[in-house]
Design a protein that fits this description.
By secondary structure, the protein is mostly helical. Helices cover 61% and strands 0% of the residues. Helix 3 packs across helix 4 and helix 10 runs antiparallel to helix 11 (235-247). The chain is elongated and about 80 Å long. It starts with a helix and ends in a 5-residue tail after the last helix.
């Protein structure tokens, strides 16, 4: 599903490849525009064995593996719980008895009870979409399952569910969808050449995702405003969307802003390129990727001194660099504080759900007649 947008993002990431640890796991440091998954958790390779077992239950009828997945779920592995619910729903939709020991509605109802409707339906949609990656799995059935679940979460305001709807609308379009006359937020124009998000339904959900706080949707729209095939090249809007993405914790956007303003880079903006803004976003990029400041200092030195291959003329003063460092530290701290608050809310939600696990186990055993 990679579009020219993804290729542009990959260009910037290859030129400015991140090294070192991610800043406390708070920031999104990979673009992953084509994934439907919680931000910061994709691609989650640690889940590969889990979904491999789920695939085997369905494709190879290895139902003896289902109790193992169920036990992981009942012990608090939420990825296993989401996968188990998605597997059970797929089995029921395709006329098979549930291998999990309980109907799909049982698992779905409990996940909603534990996490609330918005997060529950989002994670169930993610699980169904993840199962499409399995070999010879019923892709169309799973895409429709994912879309139904994500739509429920999107209707409740989940921005990443809206982003997922933007992807799935290209794969499973709704023939009855009609673009509202006034959506109330910017809509991606039709791609006149190639790429994803061309259908009205898909373009609507991508705009909704950006407006409701998806950092990846804002990143995507920032790229759209740079590309001629959308016939809406607008550098000001591009910078606005990329900044939105960065403020929402997307370190990739900071890296792209650095490249966009950098005078010597081929990915830069001929109109907006300048050393002051470039060094500012280089500082933020470095902080959000937890990289060492030395490379920024070397670049700033070249800009200040001039008379070198990259900068024949001086384009930055020492005072401007010191001001950029101060402002970048302030903005980084504000972004970090916002992301820490989001993480606290997320952790509190799942801690509450974890405390309900004994109730879930008891309810499962009761509906199973005491047999596990």
């Amino acid at each position: 599903m990679q579009s020219s947008l993804c290729r542009l993002a990959l260009f910037v990431l290859c030129v400015f490849a991140p090294v070192g640890a991610h800043a406390e796991g708070l920031f999104l440091t990979e673009s992953n525009l084509e994934y439907i998954a919680p931000e910061g958790q994709f691609p989650d390779r640690s889940c590969a064995p889990l979904y491999g077992a789920v695939d085997d239950v369905y494709r190879k009828n290895r139902v003896e593996l289902a109790p193992e997945v169920r036990e992981r779920a009942l012990k608090g592995d939420f990825n296993a719980l989401f996968a188990l619910a998605a597997l059970t729903r797929l089995e029921e939709n395709t006329g098979r008895p549930p291998s999990s020991g309980a109907p799909a509605a049982f698992w779905e109802d409990w996940i909603v009870r534990m996490l609330g409707e918005k997060e529950a339906w989002y994670r169930l949609g993610v699980a169904a979409f993840t199962m499409t990656q399995g070999i010879n799995m019923p892709e169309s059935d799973l895409q429709l399952m994912a879309k139904r679940a994500l739509r429920k979460a999107a209707d409740l305001g989940h921005p990443e569910a809206m982003y997922g709807m933007g992807i799935l609308a290209e794969l499973q379009p709704d023939p009855d969808f009609r673009m509202p006359e006034d959506p109330g937020f910017p809509i991606i124009p039709r791609n006149i050449a190639e790429g994803n998000f061309r259908l009205d339904e898909s373009r609507y959900w991508m705009g909704a995702a950006a407006a409701h706080g998806s950092s990846r949707a804002n990143l995507h729209m920032g790229l759209v405003y740079q590309m001629e095939q959308f016939a809406v090249v607008n550098e000001t809007e591009s910078v606005k969307m990329l900044r939105n993405s960065m403020v929402m914790g997307n370190a990739v956007a900071a890296r792209m802003l650095y490249a966009y303003f950098e005078p010597y880079m081929t990915a830069h903006s001929p109109t907006l390129a300048n050393c002051k803004d470039s060094i500012y976003y280089f500082l933020l990029d470095t902080k959000m990727h937890s990289e060492k400041i030395e490379q920024v200092e070397i670049m700033a030195g070249h800009m200040i001194a001039g008379n070198n291959k990259l900068f024949p003329k001086a384009c930055l003063t020492r005072e401007q660099y010191e001001e950029a460092m101060k402002k970048a530290e302030e903005e980084f701290n504000a972004i970090k504080a916002s992301m820490e608050e989001k993480k606290r809310e997320h952790d509190a939600l799942y801690a509450r759900a974890e405390r309900m696990l004994p109730e879930l186990r008891a309810a499962f055993e009761a509906q199973a007649g005491g047999k596990c």
